[in-house]
Write a structure and sequence with these properties.
Strand order of the largest sheet: 3-2-1-4-5-11-10
Strand content: 25-35%
Shape: globular
Largest sheet: 7 strands, mixed
Structural class: alpha/beta
Length: 256
């Protein structure tokens, strides 16, 4: 089974992921900072779970993802519930030609799939280019604590009649990085046998100070840094770090 097939079981594996908390967080910040426009780019949208939820809340949503198969699932979801969304296949590090938006999101720690500081910086620059003046950029990342203390050298399992997996996490090649080795067993209803396939997912995070420096260099004002879907300041044991940023009207600062 290849990654394209993985797209079709992704939502079963993510059924307990709190998408509504991301939606509520986004809506609260849009309201707080008086963003009256409705154009939103959901970057690294995956199978479009949040993209569709945003569209159901009357946002004019464009979903962008690297995986064509994920986008196909997102399209099917939108058509099923009857909401209009636009979908584009692009790498978040090389965004181009998508127009401008009132807000851009990168949720569900998708930014942590970028391997180098340069990729993160290029993503920030691309988001800046695609935002209207004073537009909001909201994203979350894994904390260093989560990568080093929760994921590292741990094994997680999930067992279901149709889908099961074994998930082993190991130290990655970079500081604050982790490699997730996943083995899936998926029931083939035609043969009543389980198919095994394997995935390797690499994630890397950085200190809050580094993200803030790169955002500043890209031309953003960092309005808030908080933890775990709340307005609380991150602590040593926070697991998910949220950034709320505004595009500065001034010209971009020189590159680092």
């Amino acid at each position: 089974m290849n990654y394209g097939d993985f797209a079709y079981i992704y939502d079963d594996l993510m059924r307990d992921v709190p998408y509504d908390q991301w939606l509520n967080f986004f809506q609260n910040k849009v309201k707080k900072y008086n963003i009256s426009g409705k154009k939103v780019m959901d970057l690294a949208c995956g199978t479009g779970e949040l993209t569709v939820k945003l569209a159901e809340e009357d946002f004019e949503v464009t979903g962008v993802d690297l995986s064509e198969d994920m986008l196909m699932v997102a399209r099917e979801k939108a058509e099923k519930v009857g909401v209009p969304i636009q979908l584009f296949q692009q790498n978040m590090c090389a965004l181009e030609g998508l127009g401008t938006f009132d807000a851009v999101t990168i949720f569900c720690d998708s930014l942590n799939y970028l391997a180098t500081p340069e990729e993160v910086q290029e993503t920030f620059k691309g988001v800046y280019t695609h935002l209207d003046d004073n537009g909001l950029f909201i994203f979350d990342v894994h904390s260093i604590y989560k990568v080093d203390q929760i994921f590292m050298n741990e094994t997680f399992t999930y067992i279901d009649d149709e889908i099961s997996y074994i998930w082993n996490s190991f130290e990655g090649e970079f500081p604050y990085s982790v490699e997730h080795e996943l083995t899936f067993f998926v029931l083939n209803e035609k043969t009543d046998q389980y198919i095994r396939f394997d995935e390797l997912h690499k994630q890397r995070t950085f200190p809050i100070s580094e993200y803030s420096k790169w955002l500043d260099a890209a031309g953003f004002d960092v309005l808030e840094v908080s933890a775990d879907y709340s307005d609380n300041i991150p602590s040593d044991t926070s697991e998910r770090i949220f950034f709320v940023c505004k595009k500065n009207k001034q010209e971009k600062k020189s590159d680092l």
